[in-house]
Amino acid sequence: MNDKQKIPTPLATEIAEKAWSARESWRAFEIMAEFVEATERLAPIRPAVSIFGSARALPGQPYYELTQTIARLLSDAGFSVLSGGGPGVMEAANKGAYFGRSPSVGLNIQLPNEQHVNPYQDISQTFRHFFARKVMFVKFASAYVVMPGGYGTLDELMEALTLVQTAKTRRIPIILVHEPFWRGLLAWLHGTLVAEGMIDAPDLDLIQVIDEPTKVVEAIFAHYEKRAFEPSAREREIQLHL
Asked: Residue 3: what pLDDT?
């Protein structure tokens, strides 16, 4: 076979494009199914707190142990704990909640590296699509607790800040734990983003920095002293458009 015979014909190209288009269309149904299944399974878990952090923290290391303590306190205080369902801080969050009073929930994601399902989950839901998983973290969370982490953690943090800032979801506590880790980021937010007018100074008030586990729980309760943990009818309507 010569090189000319290897060149796809217009008909072959058209058939391939139609086949790909059909796959794309069916993918929409897969995404819809993920949303429906996850929403039905997670509906009973409120109130819940989403905890994010590095997949690389190991048992016995400070971030792992700190996360486990916070998750246990939240669970005993009546909050279900949502994590990414994998290793590291995710495992610590699930482990702390698993041995507490309230459900430990893992929202797992299929990844080629770093992700395996940890065993400390009362409810486990696996996603193929990051954006569907992120919607569930926001939709069911009464607060975000953000531990030290990498790109994935920063992605979740900025997603939450953006949704709250733009009023695409209700205002919830967004708590960064371990101030030394976050110091440089906070300085940059203030010294660059605020200074150059990229965000307004009050936007920094969306973030709290707390180091003590008991203070994390207290801050969440303080936020809800004058309102219910459940979203209002108006907030539910807003969240339909996440």
From this structure: 56
Residue 104 lies in a domain: yes
pLDDT value at residue 239: 79
Task: Report residues of the chain scoring pLDDT below 50.
Answer: none
Tell me what pLDDT residue 50 has. Answer: 97
Quick check: is 87 in a domain? yes
CATH number, domain of 22, equals 3.40.50.450
pTM score, whole prediction? 0.87
Query: What is the SS3 string spanning the chain?
Result: CCHHHHCCCHHHHHHHHHHHHHHHHHHHHHHHHHHHHHHHHHHHHCCEEEEECCCCCCCCCHHHHHHHHHHHHHHHCCCEEEECCCCCHHHHHHHHHHCCCCCEEEEEECCCCCCCCCCCCCEEEEECCHHHHHHHHHHCCCEEEECCCCHHHHHHHHHHHHHHHCCCCCCCCEEEECHHHHHHHHHHHHHHHHCCCCCCHHHHHHEEEECCHHHHHHHHHHHCCCCCCCCCHHHHHHHCCC
**Number of independent structural domains in the chain:** 1
